[in-house]
Amino acid sequence: MTGHGAIAVPAAAPPGSSTPAWRLLGTLTLAGAFAGALIALVYQMTLPSIERYAGAKISGAVREVLGSPVRLDTLYLVGDKLTRTSPGAGARNVSRAFVGFDEKGARTGVAVEAAEPGFADLVLLMVGFNPDTRAVTGFVVLGQKETPGLGDKIKRDSSFVSQFRGKVAPLKGAKSETADASTVRTITGATISSRAVIQIINNAVALWQPRVAAFDAGEGQ
Amino acid sequence: MTAPTTTVSTEAFVPGAPPAAPLWSDMARGIARENPVFVQMLGLCPAMAVSNMLTNGLAMGIATTFVLTASSFMISILRRYIATEVRITAYVLTIATFVTVADLILAATFPVISEALGPFVPLIVVNCLILGRAEAFASKVRPVRALADALGMGAGFTLALSTLSTIRELLGSGSLFGFNVLGPAFEPWVVMVMPAGGFLTLGLVLLLMGWYGTLKAQRAKAAAA
Does ipTM surpass 0.90 in this model? Predict the structure, then answer.
């Protein structure tokens, strides 16, 4: 087998002496079991920090859009109704609304997560608004894959982000600055991404404002 | 490359085994002379995808080096127990395991970088550099040589990604590691952070390297004459 010039030929087994099937099966089963065990171990070890980060990201965003509330309530959406009681750890991906209160106990706003397609992929926002006045209290981009340098300005351009505070939904976009209470300036070169943000906020307010109002009516009784 | 039959080795003969070489040369080879990206043209997909920011390029390089080193070492240890018929399956299984481990550790320790790299960390599994080194090198040599080779190739990959991402971040965002270095007067070349910028940068770097290589060969010829 060691003829001259034997370069880079894979180690082929001589004919008639191939490995028995049970050995192949055994090797792969054993390797798979070890691989699975290793992944399970690392998963267990890293899960707490990964969950802690995800939780910190959400609560940080809630605090930012509601202007550092003194107290926060979490409401859960069960069916089409908001309730104070968590549907339990078994229910995953339950929509939540975070209600912020200032030191006098007055409600400062409601924060909800909302996502819609932007230019590249889904844009995920934490939207804060006052359910009584429909005024936006702010938004934070939680996830986006917009064009770097253009569309991602919806996250990085602080003058774009800060102008939403106080504007009353439903919002409209304009190319230039206006004094209108519902008009925001879109970013040059990122019109579609800017419009996506406006659209997400409008839809979030339109969807959640009646839910919060219904919850208020229920609590009042 | 010389044929393996011309070398004297204390190792048992493995068909297609790489010629015996000192450890430092196993390691140095991957950094410049056989650089995975610039010379072997392997792993170009991640090299294009994540080299728009120096932080991302460096993180991707380190993650790939970790996976390459761990899987090469493991495959070299197990080389006598892996049957030829299922070797590729076994390599991919080993590589995929270490990629998952790297992905989880990255998400737990550097969540911001992990988010920026997105799906490209899981995609290290299909980086042909890693499977290539497993098949061509690690499965045919002692673990210590596999380790040296993987570290060298990983360093070369990291170096290549850092070079590309330094150029792209500097021109495309005017910054390095996210810190502005070119000042507010600099108008960023947006194309450099987009996919097209990756192709442009790699093409230009290869052009420069080829040009330098030709120049060097001409000088050597002139000196010999």
Answer: no
